[in-house]
Amino acid sequence: MSTGPAGGGYQTSEDEQILHKLGYAQELFRAMGGFQNFAISFTIISILAGCLTSYFIAFNNGGPIAISWGWLWVGLMSTIISLAMAEIASAYPTAGGLYYWSAKLARRNAPAWSWFTGWFNLVGQVAITASIDFGLATVINFLISSYISDNLLTARWILFTYALVLILHGLINTFRVALVGLLNQISVWWHVAGVAVILAVLIFVPDNHASADFVFTDRINNSGFSDSMYWFYVLPLGFLLTQYTITGFDSCAHVSEETHGAADAAAKGVWRSIFYSAAIGWVLLLAITFLAAGPDQRDAAAGGSIPLLESALGSGSVKLILIISTVGQVFCGAACLTSASRMCYAFSRDGAIPGWRIWSKVNHNRVPVNAVLFMAVFAAVLTVPAFFGNAAGIPVAFFAVVSVAVIGLYIAYVIPIYLRWRMGDRFQTGPWTLGKKYKWMCLVSVIEVFLVVVIGFNLPFSSSGVPWESDFDWSLFNYTPVVTFGVFIAVGIWWLASARNWFTGPRRTIEEIDAEIGAPPPHPESP
């Protein structure tokens, strides 16, 4: 914002002018800088969260090569996806993000493209919030158990802690966006410094380390499926470690209406958050895998990163690492709910969610508190199956929630990328552009999402989770396709039966918003 010459009065900022052209009033408070925009995605990706809580997925489904080489491959593919998204974010810097992009990029049936993109994104946002906070609750309970010598790692205790974590993150997200932005900024430095400390511990404390041959060439298949399925089924399951960790980078777009210079800052935040996370995360995962020096450590690694750390390090070192990780996950979960609530707010603002007038309201701090509550409650509902557990001790509910997050988010990512590729040179770029490189980057992105996400993570995680097998167990059934395809069918029927008659995409005008929700003060003072 700026003021004109003496007596000239107020002038709208360039960010507000762009937002007005996109059809929206400046309702949210624009208080983030470029670094804070980058910080929210970097925090949501959170290598301190994903790398540690989902380590066992890759170790059991592929082994060390799923970690060492799998991380590099999927990280590279995700970076290409982020670059394709960044160009679109530069052209359309609005909180609606993906569903808004689809509406503007589709030549025909724009409302339908927008509708399905928005719902996949919404489900993915719920699931990523649920998975991060559920993993955080597990680590918190483990830490408490180690101090009070009591086993709190039962399903009931973890779910109780999970509920408390959701409440905490909900409360954090009721404050002004300036405070949320500051927390994300602190989070970046916590992650960088924390990883440095953890690496020092992992390198210098253990007496022995695994060989490079083990870390870069060894294969492990603990899935229950035959070794003949290793390369085309088991190993892709192991890619879930990377694909899950490197998610949530659309958050840079979702907070773009709260970012100065969003047309440039949001685009850079999208790809930079992945690039730096992928580089630092790879080093961290290698250091953890090098701990598996002998049979005992390798058996422990099958249970996850925490048992491996306990087997290779002293209790003091393990607690230090887990405390650093826990704080990082607290930051991560809060940022996830921030991004999720902004997406919910924007989608509601365009009338797509039942009760949209409630979820699109902002409070006196210009924060969509109702949307925060909406997303937190549904994140809690999504993890209800975890309450029942299973005799094999396989965290199928966590697997499924992680898969729902990956599938929902990446399908939402790739729809506007495909539409942008189809539009070709007719696409009007923003200040940040790929030039002609969009042609192959967009195509690679579409193929990657189809092969790795859609095919890989809708399938059973265990041979006993296959319905036609003699040892089938419902508690081991992967309910990811039930959720993802169930949502697709539900919103598809809703679209055909009703929504196509009234949802026309992001068509909300400034005047409609002012009339239906109530306009905020036109030019708020800085806090």
Structure characteristics:
4 strands, two-stranded antiparallel sheet, disordered N terminus, mainly alpha, Amino acid/polyamine transporter I, two-stranded antiparallel ribbon, 527 residues, disordered C terminus
Question: How are the SSEs placed, and which strands pair?
Answer:
Blueprint: E1 2-3, E2 10-11, H1 14-22, H2 34-45, H3 47-53, H4 55-60, E3 61-62, H5 64-91, H6 98-105, H7 110-148, H8 155-172, H9 177-204, H10 212-217, E4 220-221, H11 230-238, H12 240-245, H13 251-254, H14 262-289, H15 295-301, H16 305-312, H17 315-349, H18 356-359, H19 369-382, H20 396-423, H21 438-455, H22 480-497, H23 510-518
Antiparallel strand pairs: 1-2, 3-4
Helix pairs in contact: 2-9, 2-14, 2-17, 3-14, 5-14, 5-20, 5-21, 6-7, 6-20, 7-8, 7-17, 7-19, 7-20, 7-22, 8-17, 8-19, 9-14, 9-17, 15-16, 17-19, 20-21, 20-22
Task: Walk me through what this model shows.
The protein is built from 23 helices and 4 strands. It has helices at residues 14-22, 34-45, 47-53, 55-60, 64-91, 98-105, 110-148, 155-172, 177-204, 212-217, 230-238, 240-245, 251-254, 262-289, 295-301, 305-312, 315-349, 356-359, 369-382, 396-423, 438-455, 480-497, 510-518; strands at residues 2-3, 10-11, 61-62, 220-221. The model is unreliable at 1-10 and 516-527 (pLDDT under 50). Helix 6 runs antiparallel to helix 7 and helix 6 runs parallel beside helix 20 (396-423). It has a single domain, classed as Up-down Bundle (Amino acid/polyamine transporter I), CATH 1.20.1740.10. With 527 residues, the protein is mainly α. Strands 1-2 form a two-stranded antiparallel ribbon. A two-stranded antiparallel ribbon has the order 3-4.
